[in-house]
Design goal:
Strand content: 5-15%
Radius of gyration: 18 Å
Helix content: 40-55%
CATH topology: TIM Barrel
Oligomer: single chain
CATH architecture: Alpha-Beta Barrel
Distance between the termini: 49 Å
CATH superfamily: Aldolase class I
Strand order of the largest sheet: 4-1-10-9-8-7-6-5
Number of domains: 1
Amino acid sequence: MADSTNIASRLRGSFVALVTPLKRDSVDEDALKKLIEWHIENGTHGLVPVGTTGESPTLTHAEHERVVALTVETVAGRIPVIAGAGSNSTAEAMSFVRHAQDVGADAALVVTPYYNKPNQRMLIEHYRTLHDNSDIPIVIYNIPGRSVIDMSDATMAELAKLPRIVGNKCATGDLARCGQERLDCGPGFALLSGEDATAVGYNAMGGQGCISVSSNVAPAACSAMQTACLDGDYATALDWQDKLYPLHRAMFLESSPSPAKYALSLLGLCSEEVRAPIYPCTDDTKAAIRAAMVGLELLE
């Protein structure tokens, strides 16, 4: 059985919501391995494959599972891997959670079920089912803007009582939620921001890190910012935040991961190819991305 206490203590710092490189509408495995090595070299603290930024809605089940397995294999235990494993179907989520467990991921990231709109009681049953039928630690992903439901603080606190529900990726945009969840869920529950632009503020409220889109493009800077937060050096963290903020904005000028993939194409790390209904960025967005990268000295 996975050591949930140990993994919760390792969910700290800069985690990248990893893109899935594509080449002629197939997963580009060589580019994925190259990206993973680049992240480790640049100080990224952990990887989150096959989340929204990894285009999970449009990957086939076989592609989803291959990306998770290849990520775990390439990382080889050097940093934590939280495998995307959510679905609006409990049975499908269970399949992804068990696969993540079987290939050796450190934890599974499970988004609140989208479209179906389960109520709070049903959310508890969904996560309890996943918990009780697997051994892998589970991180909740609460993102009302995409799921159209918001897990309440009371529901989060109830789920935090389960030994392998170890944390929350919070993308509500409400920094007060971090303070409440810190009180309700206890000190052993990992609180991770899901929003780059407010990540420093989230950490100041008690968070331990961020699952970041911007870190796809600027892993060293995002790692330095998160490390400063963990060290309690918020003056340094804010210096990094000022430098990174134009990139944070640029990454969401159009639907993710189109901006991140364009930026990575400028760095020669993967193509800008995305899978419909996401399409490549407009020229105006590309100009803003390039300008943000020049400001960070990622490009000349």
